Amino acid sequence: MKRMKQLARTAVYWPGIDSQIMDLCRTCPTCAEHQGNPPKAPVHPWMLPEKPRSRVNIDHAVNFMGHN
């Protein structure tokens, strides 16, 4: 809900926007269905490389636990 309010404030404003967003979130059937149980991201399998070492994968985390 916090992120939704922040996003809305960057685009629009009207008096009572926060309370209206909170009311919408509390009464939205789709929000209630997925609350605490977000939909899983689809899995995209990697294609097999043509030959060994033809592809290198790197995981890069920025600012992970205060370190780069």
UniProtKB/TrEMBL annotation:
InterPro entries reported in the protein's UniProt record: Integrase_H2C2 (IPR041588), Retrovirus_Pol_polyprotein (IPR050951)
UniProt-listed Pfam families: Integrase_H2C2
Segments forming domain Integrase zinc-binding: 2-35
Stored PANTHER family: PROTEIN CBG26694, PROTEIN NYNRIN-LIKE
Protein name: Integrase zinc-binding domain-containing protein
